[in-house]
Structures are given as structure tokens and as C-alpha cells.
Amino acid sequence: ETGVTQSPTHLIKTRGQQVTLRCSSQSGHNTVSWYQQALGQGPQFIFQYYREEENGRGNFPPRFSGLQFPNYSSELNVNALELDDSALYLCASSLDRGQNNEQFFGPGTRLTVL
Amino acid sequence: QKEVEQDPGPLSVPEGAIVSLNCTYSNSAFQYFMWYRQYSRKGPELLMYTYSSGNKEDGRFTAQVDKSSKYISLFIRDSQPSDSATYLCAMNRNAGNMLTFGGGTRLMVKP
Fold first, then answer.
1. Which one of A2, A4, B10, B63 has the fewest CB atoms closer than 10 angstroms to its CB?
2. Are B97 and A98 within 8 A, CB to CB?
3. Residue B47's closest CA among A5, A88, A4, A105?
4. Helix, strand or coil for residue B65?
5. pLDDT tens, A21-58?
6. Which residues of B touch A110 (CB under 8 A)?
């Protein structure tokens, strides 16, 4: 069974640029959630996708957007990057969207905004 | 005030010690409680998953939930240097599985 994978591992961008991060969910999982983890803090929920539709969103501005594809892989897009967007971006997949479904995390993409 | 509070540590213990990690929360809507372990520059790894108040044991790990006090704990028995990591508590509400995390406690187990 393949776990959650994310690409790229590391990324350096400058302020104002746009970035796309990618996530492949664990086999058989139809729900993907994205989290932002700033240095020394716990992850913060960005949004969740279930069967290609957004299924909930945290307190993040509209310049954070996402997609989920028919194979349940997902993208996180961030426009107009700001210095505070520097963080580890984590993707987690689960078997379904219900509250009793465990979430399995990928290794993350470390984004640095200069 | 954050919804989930967790002492950031670092917590330093000798090998073999019993470790106690704790989180408090303010929202009684939280129903499911998890503990994740995160090694440096890695994604969180699920350790324990509980629903009801009480204890749940898995090997050297015991998770405890007290919903009346809005307090959860993770105990690690016979701690090992390989347990050195950041421990994150997480919880979610009845609807959906969007997790709310504590800030994490950094644990160091010294040989």
C-alpha cells in the first residue's frame, strides 16, 4: 500500500509569486485535507476536498485555493505569496470524510518565501 | 485564546522514564481525539485515536481523555531515545474531520 506523497520536497519563491503544491493520496482514500505548519507551531487546517469538491475551509484567504482530481490526488495553489506563507505544507488523506476517519499525513512541502 | 493548548516544552527525560504529555481544550464540540508524533522535517504520524472518555492503551502508549475537564493526556512508558520528537494533540468536531491541533510538545529522551 502506497502512503501519501507530496511534491516538491522544498521550494523557494519570492514575494508576489504563485506556487502549486501536489499531493497523491493513499490508495483507496477519497478525502484530502491540506494544513499549514509554521515553524514551531501545530498544523492549521486550510481546506478539505471530498470527491473533487471542497468540503470545508479554515481561516485562510481566497488566495489559497485547491483542486482534487478524479484519481483523488490534489493540488494546493497559493497566489500573491507573502513572507508569512513560509511554512511546511502538509497533505493528509483519509478513507472518507466522516469524523471517525483517521488522517494519514504526507512528509510535507517546505515553502520558503523571500 | 487558542482552542487547543499544549505546553511547548522542551521536555527532557532520561531513558526509561514515564512521560506525560497533556492538552487542554475549550470547545466541548470536540468529540474525537488524536495524538501524532512528528520527527524533525517529517509529516505527523498517528499514534493514538480515541473517542470516549477513559483510557486506551497500545503498547507503551496510553491515551487518556477526560471530556468533563476538557483535558487529554498521552503517557509513554519506558521511554526510548527514539521517542524524541514533537508530540501533537489533535481533535475534531462532530461534523467532518477537519483537525484542530495543539502547538506541539517537543520531547527529548536522553540515553
1. A2
2. yes
3. A105
4. strand
5. 999 999 889 999 999 999 999 999 999 999 999 989 99
6. 41
